């Protein structure tokens, strides 16, 4: 059951379809396709078409591996353990630094843009104010798009779907490259600057940390001369996965200043395989992130970071509001959960359609990608600057006269074009950084600050803009637009229920954000903890839990979570934690693909080369036959990558004899270590003469003698769950027949 071998409709003739048919196929099939099926003649119903390779998370217990561990000294084992914790420290430090410096860039450059816009408006130079706002947004958007389009196309998007796929065992192309890390870091800085575009992509810090962890786990980069001898211990998919899990948790912790939420995010949403040692390491990493953020926030509180003002790890503190609720409040919360589930499922459906449409545009080349980004940027600038003109100026409340109207770069009660002692409530939401807009929506004791019409227009605008801005060629995410939209309609519902409820409208904004997050992301535990760490109000825990459960349940009735949909859209073969219903009616032998290809314990070189050329299998069963065994029996499983290394070493013999000791002396375990992406030995690298094709090679030293196997009568549902929970790439099944074992395709 090789994951990369699941292919649908590979033999379809493209020329036989009309243009209309092709459009329909594009809108119904994954974006990634594989035109040739080299491994399987049977396609499983519902399988994803995917050309990418899977990862070998399983420990290959062959003779070379055992010899390597027996020969390691105590100091080498100590180095290995020490490096694991050292890398967790490095990932935490780097991610924390990226997060704090991007925040400083946002506050300073975005603040400069807003100050310039506000200054021109005070002089009644409204057209120049719009030109300044839109010009800054266009320039920065084009810069971020150019980085993505020309340097690292894989950096586009939030990166969370790729993280999920990788930690599920899929080696998605180019997501681990250093260029991707470079573009994500710089693209985040650029995009965060034009905050009004609703493209706050700090959530992609998880992806940045993911790329950093991957670069370390690959043993560095030979291309960029970043290698180290000690890193050879981590040249395997299993240790890389652990580091990348730490990176994903650190990214979320840095983005939302939520260290515990980051750990739970990696556990609930990202990783499909977990153990207690990994829990400790991710917790340590997020703790380092929290400490780095705390230190720099404390330093910046003295005014040394420009417009980056005072603050702490709590981004939106709502703890000042009195939390007291009764039956009407519970009914309102239930309504919020239902609305969040419905709006969230519709949001996911529309994002899917928009992504498929954008894929047609992005295929036209880098220029088309940049043009699309510039168009969306201009549209968002028009909405941000134009919609506040339709709002009515509101007299300043007497209790806030000292800070109303506001002509500063942030905060609420924005003056915009209003006369003295009046403010524009819509400008307080649109002409602000996204953080400040969320802070205004969650602010307590300001129930009359926003009109109902303002909240409705803001929700509709953010909802639509959030949909059309995801999928363009920039490192942008969905988390902040979803929070903005959810907080908008949450506060709107709070205003409507104000006569019968005791909860503050700011708390309704928090619950609305939670409901929309649950309806789109379909996470519960991690979202609950992240929101509580963001807002510092444990008294809201029961209501947040309730609204998340209801919204997730409602959303699941219509479609999958947004990241699961994007994974499927990209064609990445993500395996769900549960088996599909149809699998309960099948057994393992029902999905076997053939013909069966096996090797003898001592195999002819020509047979191995022929099998590698004619198939794309990752693993091959090795069977010992007489004279090496009394009857045919399973010796183990040998990997394709290990066969290529062995053939390149040319440890052949003219006779069909065992040569294990000689092979162990001439080839070391590190020769079979996992190379960086695309750097391993390929079939084209082999230079085998014709006379060598008739020679023999002993496969025993590189054969995994304890592969996972299932019997032919095991239900497909049980086999699929086993396959995912153990993090397998290959799983062989067998049936007992007269005379020994009859192996079937892995």
UniProtKB/TrEMBL annotation:
Family annotation (InterPro entries): CBS_dom_sf, Cl-channel/antiporter, Cl-channel_core, Cl_channel_pln, ClC
Classify the protein's membrane topology as the record does: Multi-pass membrane protein
Compartmental location: Membrane
Keyword field: CBS domain, Chloride, Chloride channel, Ion channel, Ion transport, Membrane, Repeat, Transmembrane, Transmembrane helix, Transport
- Cellular-component GO terms for this entry: chloride channel complex; plant-type vacuole membrane
Primary site of residence: membrane
Domain of life of the source: Eukaryota
Mark the transmembrane ranges.
85-105, 126-152, 193-216, 243-266, 278-297, 330-350, 370-391, 455-484, 505-532, 538-555
Give the matching Gene3D superfamilies. Answer: Clc chloride channel
Mention one GO molecular function.
Answer: voltage-gated chloride channel activity
Q: What is this protein called?
A: Chloride channel protein CLC-c
Q: Which organism is it from?
A: Hibiscus syriacus
């Amino acid at each position: 059951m090789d994951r990369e071998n699941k292919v649908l409709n590979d033999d379809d003739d493209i020329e036989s379809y009309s243009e209309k048919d092709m459009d329909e196929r594009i809108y119904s099939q994954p974006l990634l396709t594989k035109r040739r099926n080299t491994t399987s003649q049977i396609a499983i119903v519902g399988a994803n078409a995917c050309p990418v390779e899977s990862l070998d998370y399983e420990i290959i217990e062959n003779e070379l591996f055992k010899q390597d561990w027996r020969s390691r000294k105590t100091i080498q084992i100590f180095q290995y353990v020490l490096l694991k914790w050292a890398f967790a420290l490095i990932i935490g430090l780097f991610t924390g630094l990226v997060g704090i410096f991007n925040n400083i860039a946002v506050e300073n450059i975005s603040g400069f843009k807003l100050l310039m816009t506000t200054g021109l408006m005070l002089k009644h130079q409204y057209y120049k104010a719009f030109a300044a706002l839109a010009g800054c947004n266009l320039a920065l958007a084009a810069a971020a798009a150019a980085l993505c389009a020309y340097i690292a196309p894989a950096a586009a998007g939030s990166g969370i779907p790729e993280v999920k796929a990788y930690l599920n065992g899929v080696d998605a192309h180019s997501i681990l490259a250093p260029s991707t890390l470079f573009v994500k870091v710089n693209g985040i800085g650029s995009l965060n600057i034009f905050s009004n575009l609703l493209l706050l992509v700090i959530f992609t810090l998880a992806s940045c940390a993911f790329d950093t962890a991957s670069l370390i786990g690959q043993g560095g980069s030979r291309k960029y001369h970043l290698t180290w001898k000690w890193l050879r211990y981590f040249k395997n998919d299993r240790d890389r996965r652990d580091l990348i899990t730490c990176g994903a948790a650190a990214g979320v912790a840095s983005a939302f200043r939520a260290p515990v939420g980051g750990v739970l995010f990696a556990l609930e949403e990202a990783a499909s395989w977990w153990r207690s040692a990994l829990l400790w390491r991710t917790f340590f990493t997020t703790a380092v992130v929290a400490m780095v953020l705390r230190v720099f926030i404390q330093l910046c509180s003295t005014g040394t970071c420009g417009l980056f003002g005072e603050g702490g790890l709590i981004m939106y503190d709502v703890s000042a509001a009195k939390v007291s609720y009764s039956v009407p409040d519970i009914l309102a919360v239930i309504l919020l959960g239902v609305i969040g589930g419905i709006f969230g499922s519709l949001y996911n459906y529309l994002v899917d359609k928009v992504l498929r449409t954008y894929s047609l545009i992005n295929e036209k080349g880098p220029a088309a990608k940049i043009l699309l980004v510039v168009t969306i940027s201009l549209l968002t600038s028009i909405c941000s600057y134009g919609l506040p003109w339709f709002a009515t100026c509101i007299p300043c409340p007497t209790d806030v006269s000292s800070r109303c109207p506001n002509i500063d770069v942030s905060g609420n009660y924005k003056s915009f074009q209003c006369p003295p002692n009046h403010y524009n409530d819509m400008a307080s939401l649109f002409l602000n950084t996204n953080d400040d807009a969320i802070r205004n929506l969650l602010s307590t004791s300001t129930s009359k600050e926003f009109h109902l019409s303002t909240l409705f227009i803001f929700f509709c605008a953010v909802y639509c803009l959030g949909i059309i801005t995801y999928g363009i060629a920039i490192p942008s995410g969905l988390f902040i637009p979803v929070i903005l939209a959810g907080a908008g309609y949450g506060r709107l519902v709070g205003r409507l229920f104000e006569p019968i409820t005791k909860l503050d409208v700011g708390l309704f904004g928090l619950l609305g954000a939670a409901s929309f997050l649950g309806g789109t992301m379909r996470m519960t535990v991690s979202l609950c903890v992240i929101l509580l760490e963001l807002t510092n109000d444990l008294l809201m825990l029961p209501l947040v839990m309730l609204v998340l459960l209801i919204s997730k349940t409602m959303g699941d009735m219509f479609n999958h979570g947004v990241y699961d949909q994007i994974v499927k859209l990209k064609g990445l073969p993500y395996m769900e934690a549960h088996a599909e219903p149809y699998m309960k009616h099948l057994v393992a032998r029902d999905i076997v693909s053939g013909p069966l290809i096996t090797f003898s314990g001592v195999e002819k070189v020509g047979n191995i080369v022929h099998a590698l050329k004619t198939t794309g299998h990752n693993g091959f069963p090795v069977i010992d036959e007489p004279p090496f065994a009394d009857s045919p029996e399973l010796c183990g499983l040998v990997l394709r990558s290990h066969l290529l290394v062995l053939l390149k070493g040319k440890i052949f013999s003219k006779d069909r004899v065992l040569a294990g000791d000689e092979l162990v002396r001439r080839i070391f375990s590190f020769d079979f270590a996992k190379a960086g992406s695309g750097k391993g030995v390929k079939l084209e690298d082999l230079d085998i003469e014709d006379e060598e094709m008739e020679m023999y090679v002993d496969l025993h030293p590189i054969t995994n003698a304890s592969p996972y196997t299932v019997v032919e009568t095991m239900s497909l549902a049980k086999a699929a769950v086993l396959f995912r929970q153990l993090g397998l790439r290959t799983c062989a099944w067998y049936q007992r027949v007269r005379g020994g074992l009859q192996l079937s395709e892995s």
